[in-house]
Design goal:
Blueprint (H helix, E strand, L loop, with lengths): L1 H21 L7 H11 L1 H8 L5 H4 L8 H15 L5 H16 L4
Helix pairs in contact: 2-6, 5-6
Length: 106
C-alpha cells in the first residue's frame, strides 16, 4: 500500500513539474508586462540600441539564455532604475518578453 501511495505521489509530482515548466511565468500577465515595458524600458533601450530598442533582445550575443536568467535581468533593471516593481510585475514583464522575443519553454 505504501508503495502504491509513493508511486502515485511521484507521478503527480512529475505531472505538476512538467506542466509548470511547459510555460514559464504561467500565472503572469503578458498584457500588463507589455504596458510596463512600454512605459519604462523602451526609451532606455532605444537610446542605447537604436530603433525601437528591441535589438537588445534579439542581438546575437544577448545575455539572457534561460527563463530564470530573464527574470534575473528584469530584476536587475528594476533595481538599477529604481522602478520599485513588485515580484508579480517583474514576472509580468518576463512573460511579455518571453512570449515576444525569447520563447523559452522552461
Amino acid at each position: 500500500m505504501k508503495s502504491l501511495l509513493l508511486a502515485c505521489l511521484i507521478l503527480t509530482t512529475s505531472f505538476i513539474s512538467y506542466d509548470a515548466s511547459a510555460e514559464p511565468y504561467a500565472k503572469a500577465d503578458a498584457v500588463a508586462g507589455k504596458a510596463l515595458v512600454d512605459a519604462n524600458c523602451i526609451h532606455c533601450h532605444a537610446e542605447n540600441f537604436g530603433g525601437d530598442g528591441s535589438t537588445i533582445y534579439t542581438r546575437e550575443y544577448h545575455k539572457v539564455k534561460t527563463s530564470k536568467g530573464l527574470v534575473a535581468q528584469v530584476r536587475n533593471c528594476n533595481t538599477m532604475l529604481g522602478l520599485k516593481w513588485f515580484e508579480d510585475e517583474e514576472l509580468n514583464v518576463a512573460k511579455y518578453l518571453n512570449q515576444t522575443y525569447y520563447k523559452f519553454t522552461e
